[in-house]
User: Which sequence fits this backbone?
């Protein structure tokens, strides 16, 4: 198998690190070599964050380069657009339909682009998930990232059971139940696929 | 029996030290090195501490080494500067038990104030350096570092970079080898570095480096991989992975020991390959030495930069001449890091901003107070510098010049080196207002404890140093503790204290919103019918607030921590603080 390249992007504090850990453990359980690359420190404070996951028979560099990602998992719309050029032409973007204004927009120095989803769909195959709203409805707003992961699961690969097993051993013990529910919801979620 | 696990480079370094039988680990948190200490603290067999700063941490490690046990100190690149005083001389004394310094550089400055190369410091200090390329090597090289340290009687540096420290890879775990502490032998010629002794030790140090350089030619961590001989790379660390990714057929001389260099091995490799590239992030440390030996065909910084991180695409473009960036990135608004919703720093800065007070800043999340919309911080240099730079301004231009200035410094940074600067203000009869933004943690690096939080790295509860009492003990009469969300109290205190002809300290108190155990019972809710669309609530730049098309505001419930700052700033009661359902 050639190396599979996955990117997780979002806004610092949205839980990209936990998500990448789940993916990393999945790859290990699948018997692959795997490398992950994360961002810690200042950028985590509400900045744009990106995490790379690469797995396959043998992985050299820990980062995914432009035009090389198979799957782009985005926890926020604008961030999907920011990193879209990393995605292969036939890659898939899984996008949480949620907007967080960057400070440049809050202060009026820039405008949040209109029709981000349309732009994404015009460029690449795009799966839009109402993950934050779903998680809010579930009464567990923090699990939105696992809802997104559930929706991304079929594009990333691996059996559903493997996902659940890894999820159970990766998230904090107290949150296993709610995260499992979030994953199931995401997995089942009617997703709107275009592109 | 061996177990495979996916570990961060930093966790792998900690694991290596653990397996090597390390007894004492000391550090001050600093991205990208912090997780080394957090990981090693989990092993019961290892004593691990947060020291107030890197100099102290290095000295703790030196003490443990003199006492005959293996010891480690870890720090970010700029921490190496703070620790360099003891490190330069520890190179002379050598070690008892093996001693390792982990230096984590930050090419690309993800979370740093400069981009210095620790290999340069190590060369100046005459400390040998190992540089791993992935998590598995991070563990192996750390273990090797302890062996080499004892074999050559030298402290060893393990150099990491952000990309290694914060990448995860598969590591095979092994058992810890417990080591008996060496019996103590008084040896002042080795450990008392007064001139007569140090002169002799310097001779030893130079001889030691020469011996290591020779031995380095046969060390297995320095490895020539001969493939296609038409092109060869000398490389180390993470850049090795980029070479393997972009040009898997190329020959590579992979250096594990990057100081001192294995000259014969390099000359041999250079002679065998037609084209020779030296591929090293940051400074041309290897390149300059190699060229100084007359290997002039080597190509390095002529085509590779001294700034930022490297990549496989850099090789594809600059060596293979391929176009890699086929698609322009979308034009989207930048998203720089910002203070979190509910951050107490935002509240304090909103007051300083309104009073048009400038701040000499320091290192921490609160450095973000420099940018719009808060725009309060005017300078940031290094840990602890806020207080001394304010003092320097006062001495240069007089007290009237700094009437609209304060120094701002976090609690952890104050304990790091700020306290020295405050002593200086008292001693040298400065006047000026020091604001200690006390959020009860080391925030930026991910919430580490320090001497004023009452908890150790190992999680033990200990008496917390009282910052207010500490300041008073220096003879400062005017020390005030005010809630970071008491806007009226802060306004009054800033106005009053900046006019005072004395040193004063204002400690603003409220825990970091990301701190474990801090709960938020409230949320802020807009009342649109009362909104006059003045935008006062938006001024401090809380990311939970957005302006709607009609000029009223929305508050993102998933982000709001209910700090109430926006409510206090609204004169029309158009924002309410409610209990969360």
Assistant:
């Amino acid at each position: 198998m050639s190396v599979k390249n996955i990117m997780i992007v979002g806004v610092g504090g949205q839980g990209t690190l936990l998500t990448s850990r789940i993916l990393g453990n999945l790859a290990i359980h699948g018997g692959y070599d795997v490398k992950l690359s994360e961002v810690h420190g200042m950028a985590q404070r509400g900045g744009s964050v990106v995490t790379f996951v690469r797995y396959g028979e043998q992985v050299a560099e820990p980062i995914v380069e432009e035009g090389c990602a198979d799957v782009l998992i985005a926890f926020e719309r604008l961030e999907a657009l920011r990193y879209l050029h990393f995605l292969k032409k036939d890659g898939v973007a899984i996008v949480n339909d949620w907007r967080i204004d960057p400070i440049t927009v809050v202060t009026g120095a820039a405008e949040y682009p209109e029709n981000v989803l349309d732009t994404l769909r015009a460029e690449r195959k795009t799966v839009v998930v109402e993950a934050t709203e779903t998680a809010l409805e579930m009464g567990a707003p923090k699990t939105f990232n696992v809802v997104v992961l559930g929706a991304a699961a079929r594009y990333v690969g691996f059996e559903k059971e493997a996902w659940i097993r890894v999820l159970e051993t990766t998230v904090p013990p107290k949150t296993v139940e709610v995260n499992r529910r979030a994953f199931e919801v995401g997995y089942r979620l009617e997703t709107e696929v275009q592109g | 029996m061996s177990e495979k696990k996916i570990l961060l480079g930093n966790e792998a370094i900690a694991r290596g030290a653990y397996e090597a039988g390390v007894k004492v680990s000391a550090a001050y948190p600093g991205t990208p090195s912090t997780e080394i200490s957090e990981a090693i603290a989990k092993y019961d067999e290892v004593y691990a501490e947060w020291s107030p700063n890197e100099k102290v941490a290095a000295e703790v490690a030196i003490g443990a080494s003199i006492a005959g046990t293996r010891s480690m100190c870890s720090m970010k690149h700029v921490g190496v500067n703070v620790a360099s005083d003891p490190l330069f001389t520890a190179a002379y004394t050598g070690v008892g038990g093996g001693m390792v310094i982990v230096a984590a550089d930050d090419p690309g400055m993800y979370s740093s104030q400069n981009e210095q190369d620790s290999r340069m410091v190590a060369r100046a200090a005459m400390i040998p350096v190992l540089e791993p390329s992935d998590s598995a090597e991070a563990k192996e090289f750390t273990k090797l570092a302890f062996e080499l340290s004892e074999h050559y009687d030298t402290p060893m540096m393990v150099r990491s970079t952000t990309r290694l420290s914060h990448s995860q890879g598969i590591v095979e775990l092994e058992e810890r080898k417990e080591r008996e502490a060496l019996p103590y032998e008084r040896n002042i010629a080795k450990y008392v570095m007064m001139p007569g002794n140090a002169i002799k030790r310097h001779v030893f140090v130079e001889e030691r480096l020469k011996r290591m350089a020779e031995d380095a030619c046969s060390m297995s961590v320095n490895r020539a991989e001969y493939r296609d001989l038409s092109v060869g790379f000398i490389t180390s660390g993470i850049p090795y992975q980029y070479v393997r990714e972009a040009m898997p057929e190329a020959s590579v001389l992979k250096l594990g020991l990057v100081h001192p260099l294995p000259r014969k091995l390099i000359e041999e490799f250079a002679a065998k390959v037609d084209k020779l590239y030296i591929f090293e992030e940051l400074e041309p440390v290897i390149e300059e030495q190699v060229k100084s030996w007359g290997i002039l065909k080597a190509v390095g910084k002529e085509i590779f930069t001294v700034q930022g991180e490297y990549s496989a695409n850099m090789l594809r473009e600059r060596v293979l001449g391929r176009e890699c960036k086929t698609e322009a990135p979308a034009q989207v608004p930048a998203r720089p890091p910002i203070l979190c919703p509910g951050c107490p720093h935002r509240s304090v800065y909103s007051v300083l901003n309104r009073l048009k007070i400038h701040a000499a800043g320091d290192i921490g999340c609160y450095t973000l107070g420099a940018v719009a919309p808060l725009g309060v911080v005017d300078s940031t240099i290094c840990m602890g510098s806020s207080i001394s730079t304010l003092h320097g301004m006062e001495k240069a231009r007089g007290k009237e010049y700094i009437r609209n200035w304060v120094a701002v410094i976090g609690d952890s940074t104050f304990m790091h080196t700020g306290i020295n600067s405050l002593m200086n203000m008292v001693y040298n009869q400065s006047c000026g207002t020091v604001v200690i933004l006390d959020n009860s943690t080391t925030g930026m690096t991910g919430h580490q404890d320090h001497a004023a939080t009452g908890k150790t790295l190992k999680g033990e509860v200990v008496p917390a140093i009282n910052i207010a009492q500490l300041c008073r003990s220096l003879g400062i009469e005017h020390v005030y503790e005010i809630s970071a969300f008491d806007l009226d109290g802060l306004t009054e205190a800033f106005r009053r204290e900046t006019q005072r002809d004395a040193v004063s300290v204002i400690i603003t108190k409220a825990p970091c919103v990301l701190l474990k155990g801090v709960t938020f019972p409230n949320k802020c809710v807009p009342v649109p019918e009362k909104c006059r669309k003045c935008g006062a609530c938006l001024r401090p730049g809380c990311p939970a607030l957005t302006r709607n098309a009609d000029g009223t505001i929305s508050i993102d419930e998933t982000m709001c921590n209910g700090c109430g700052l926006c409510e206090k700033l609204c004169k029309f009661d158009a924002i309410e603080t409610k209990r969360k359902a």
